[in-house]
Give the backbone structure.
Amino acid sequence: MFPLFEYLGPVFAFAADDFKHKTRDVAVAAEEFPTVELVVQYGLDTGTMRKKNGTTRNLQGLKNGCRFVHILFCKMLGSPELKLSAAASEAYKMALEPYHILPVKLAVKAGIYTLPSREAFLARLGETETSAMEKFQVFVSRSCVLVEQFEELYQQALRGTKKR
């Protein structure tokens, strides 16, 4: 899913590398902490819940990236005439912006205007409007469950754990 960010152009290309790093970190950590609850407890115990490149924060970041793609695809599915820049801007505001510092927010907002057209984006993916919408629908239906379940597990883990 995260290579998709490379197709969005330079403004989101940095995110593709960031998500690759987060994925590797979480995969390695999963050997020691196989549940969301254990990851959260580790973050609480070590004071790394919000630490840059900390496993708990990386896991949250992956969820946010998935949510961004989910919202982007929902917007594109809901309105075939909607420009990619409008869909990406809305998805960014909802899924990623709350977690970014001001310089990143400003860079993304400026970079939104450099996104490819909807048609060029779909062509980069090797898709037509019709074929892409079919695949986007599959992703949306599956990612909705994933994001909701993750958020529920994450919140349950936070409520059920205490900093020692």
